Every structure is written in structure tokens, then in C-alpha cells.
């Protein structure tokens, strides 16, 4: 099974259409099974449009929805869901999305924060989809979590909600922007690991790259190199490949985050 996660920083990038095409080309070239995306935006005051048949969600799509554009570039061959989570930068419906070339059995929209105020920038939700690939069923969650030391919406509270929601009897992947540098001991990353989740980078036979963000990004203005985007799994499965992608080496940079690509033996 091939899985890609990426914080897209969408509708905020220069040369947006070229970067969107780069993402689509990578997905199609590598025949990726599941794509988990964060900061998937649409402009709030744009016109609402009819959803394609591949969309399994219920949230209203606007004409510049980034996931909708991606769906078209993928030839409308992937089923997908998108949820709006909060107002971003005073003009976006900022959300998360999951695409899969397999069948989505069901979806979950889970609020992770104490606040349910859509206009508040600290609001967080996770999207989970239950997927059947013809051989087995599994769950994938995509989330964009907050910071460990936030005084209002700390990571630990958000994580406890997500961890509880993701306790399934089947295989589960957690993918996304966790805002959890692994070098900060006894904080977010260590908590996820202590709760029984495996870092697929540690399980992989082949690893390329480490950091998923470099330079100044929102919330980490003083940081330069960080590993904050992950794919976790609830079992110690055999992983073939774990790579940092869209980092300017084999693929062009498409966001203020790099992507994480993983292939396991499922």
C-alpha cells in the first residue's frame, strides 16, 4: 500500500497551478493508493459548485477548492472526502482531505479541540476514512494538530481525542502535520509513540530524507529544520520505503512543507 501525506498550504503558494500539477503527476506516476492532505483550502466567498460523483463528503465545495482541482487532474478516478475545519487567514475554508483509488466504506469527522468555533484559528478536526482495497479493509486519518505548549488548545488534549477515535480492530494509519518535532523529548512525538503508535520511518527498510519543514513557517518562525509531518501505524508492519518528497531533490517543492511518501507490504 502506497500512502502520501502533505500539508499543501494551498491557495497561498506562488505558481499554484504548476505545483498542483506536480502533485498530481507524482500521484499518478507512483500509482498511490491513499493521499492524506492538510491545509486544503477554498475561498469562502467563491461560488458553490456541484460535487463530482467521486466526492463522498457532505461539505459544500466552492469553485476554487484545492481538492476539487486535484480530483480533476487525477482524472476523477479517486474517491475522496474533504471537510472544512475552520476559517483560515480570514478568507479560506481551511480543511483536510483524503483521496483513495479504492472504495471508501465510511467517513468520520472528529473535532479534536475544545472549541467548536469555526471562526477560531485554533480549531482542529480529523478526517478518517474506512477503505476497502479488495484484499482488506483499513482506516486512514488525516489531521493537522496544534502545539505541545499551547495554553488554550494543547497538543495533548487533541491527541487524546484522536488516539481514542483511532482505536480500531483493523489496520490504522495516522497521517499529517502533527507539529511535533521528534527531537523535543517528552513532548508530542514521544507521547504518540508511548501510546503504542509506530513511526513508519523507523519500520522502513529504505529511508530517504528526514526533515519535512525548513525555514520559517507559521507557528515555528524561529525554527529552521524540523520533522513534524508523519505517517504512524498501529501495528509493526513491514515497510518497504519511507521518503521525504517534494523537497527539491527528485521532485519540485510545492508547499512550505515537504511530503512524506510510504510504501508497505499491505
From TrEMBL:
Gene Ontology biological process terms, A to Z: GPI anchor biosynthetic process
Annotated Endonuclease/exonuclease/phosphatase domain residues: 4-257
Presence of the UniProt keyword Hydrolase in the record: yes
One GO CC annotation: membrane
GO MF annotation: an example: endonuclease activity
Name of a matching Pfam family: Exo_endo_phos
CDD domains for this protein: RgfB-like
Keyword list, A-Z: Endonuclease, Hydrolase, Nuclease
PANTHER family: CALCOFLUOR WHITE HYPERSENSITIVE PROTEIN PRECURSOR (PTHR14859), PGAP2-INTERACTING PROTEIN (PTHR14859:SF1)
Designated name of the protein: Endonuclease
Amino acid at each position: 500500500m502506497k500512502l502520501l501525506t502533505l500539508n499543501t498550504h494551498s491557495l497561498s503558494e506562488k505558481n499554484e497551478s504548476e505545483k498542483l500539477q506536480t502533485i498530481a503527476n507524482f500521484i499518478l506516476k507512483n500509482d498511490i493508493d491513499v493521499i492524506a492532505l492538510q491545509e486544503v483550502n477554498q475561498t469562502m466567498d467563491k461560488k458553490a459548485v456541484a460535487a463530482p460523483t467521486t466526492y463522498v463528503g457532505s461539505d459544500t465545495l466552492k469553485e476554487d477548492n484545492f481538492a476539487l482541482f486535484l480530483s480533476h487532474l487525477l482524472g476523477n478516478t479517486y474517491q475522496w472526502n474533504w471537510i472544512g475545519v475552520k476559517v483560515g487567514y480570514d478568507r479560506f475554508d481551511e480543511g483536510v482531505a483524503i483521496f483513495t483509488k479504492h472504495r471508501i466504506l465510511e467517513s468520520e469527522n472528529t473535532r479534536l479541540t475544545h472549541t467548536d468555533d469555526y471562526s477560531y484559528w485554533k480549531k482542529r478536526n480529523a478526517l478518517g476514512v474506512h477503505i476497502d482495497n479488495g484484499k482488506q479493509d483499513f482506516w486512514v486519518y488525516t489531521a493537522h494538530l496544534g502545539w505541545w505548549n499551547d495554553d488554550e488548545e494543547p497538543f495533548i488534549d487533541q491527541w487524546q481525542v484522536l488516539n481514542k477515535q483511532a482505536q480500531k480492530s483493523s489496520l490504522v494509519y495516522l497521517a499529517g502535520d502533527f507539529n511535533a518535532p521528534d527531537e523535543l523529548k517528552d513532548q508530542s512525538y514521544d507521547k504518540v509513540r508511548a501510546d503504542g503508535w509506530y513511526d513508519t520511518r523507523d519500520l522502513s527498510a529504505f529511508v530517504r530524507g528526514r526533515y519535512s519543514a525548513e525555514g520559517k513557517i507559521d507557528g515555528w518562525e524561529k525554527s529552521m529544520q524540523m520533522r513534524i509531518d508523519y505517517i504512524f501505524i498501529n501495528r509493526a508492519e513491514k515497510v518497504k520505503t519511507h521518503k521525504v518528497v517534494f523537497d527539491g531533490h527528485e521532485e519540485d517543492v510545492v508547499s512550505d512543507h515537504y511530503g512524506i511518501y510510504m510504501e508497505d507490504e499491505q
